[in-house]
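user: can you give me the structure for this one chain? C-alpha cells are fine.
assistant: on it. calling the predictor now.
[tool input]
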Amino acid sequence: MSPGLLTVRVARKAVEALDIATFELVADDGSALPAFSAGAHVDVHLPGGVVRQYSLCNDPGESHRYLIGVLRDAASRGGSVALHDAVHEGDRLQISAPKNHFPLAHEARRSLLLAGGIGITPLLCMAERLAVIGADFELHHCTRSRERTAFVGRIDASRFADRVQRHFDDGDAAQRLDLDALLGQPEAGVHVYVCGPKGFMDAVLGRARDRGWPAAQIHYEYFGAEPVAALTGDAAFEVQLASSGRIVIVPPGQSIVHALAEAGVAVMTSCEQGVCGTCLTRVLEGTPDHRDLYLTPEEQAANDQFLPCCSRSKSARLVLDL
C-alpha cells in the first residue's frame, strides 16, 4: 500500500438514481475508519492511476464505513466511468484519509444549502449534521428530472424532510429555483453553501456576489472543472524556488507542477484541475495567472498563493515558497 493511503473494500454498490451509484467503503482489515466532518471528501485511487475526489455522504458519527455517491459522466476524464464500470462489490481500493475544504460555519444563524445534481452529496451530510444540532437551515436540490435525483428515499424519511425543496428542469416553471428570491438581499448571519456542476455554481455564486453577499458567508466546492487548454499568448516563464534559489523554466503548454516534477521537485497534487486545493502554494514574488476554481476572487486578488497544477504567471518570474 502507498504511504498515507487506506485500503478499503467495496462492501456494497447500489443504484441510487439514473446514472448514479453509491459505494459503501469499509476498512479492509475491519478496523475503524478515520473520523470526518460534514463537507469532507476522500481521494479515491482508481485503476490506471486515476485519482478523483468524492464527498462523503454518510453520517459523520459512523466510523465503520464511508459512503460516496458517483454520477456516471461519459464526458468526464474517466474516473466516474471507471467506478461505475470497473469497480464491483468486494473490490479493494486505496483512498486518502478524509480532507475537508468545505466545512460548516457553525456560527451561522441560518444555513442555505443549494445543490445541483450529484452536488447533493456533501450538502446532504451537512443537512443531517445541522438537523442533529437543531440549527436553522433549508436545502434546495436542483436536478434534470426526478429519475435523476439521488437520495430521495433517504431525504423523505429524514427528520428534516420538510426543509427540503426539489427543483426539476423538466418540471413546471413554478417549481424552478428562484435565485432572486433566495439571494436577493444579503442577510447577517446567513451562510450560503453551493455544490454542483460548474454552470449551476457559477450562476449561484455570480448572483450572490452581484447582490453583495460577503465572501465570508459564501461557501462552495467544485467537484470538477472544464479542461484548461493552453490560451493563445501563453508564454514561457520562470519559477524560482525560495529555499535554494534554483530556477525552473515553465514552457507554454506545460503546467508548473509538471515542469517542477521534470526538474526533480515534487509538489503534492490530487485533482490537477484547480479544484481541491491540495497543491496550494505560497507566492513570495511575482503575479500569478489564476486559473483555479478553489480560491475566492478575494484570495486570488491578494496574489500571495496559487494552485500550480493549473495556474500560470503574468510576470516573467514567480518566486515560490518551495
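assistant: here you go. The CA atoms of residues 20 and 45 lie 19 Å apart. Residues 6-95 form a domain with the Elongation Factor Tu (Ef-tu); domain 3 fold (CATH 2.40.30.10).
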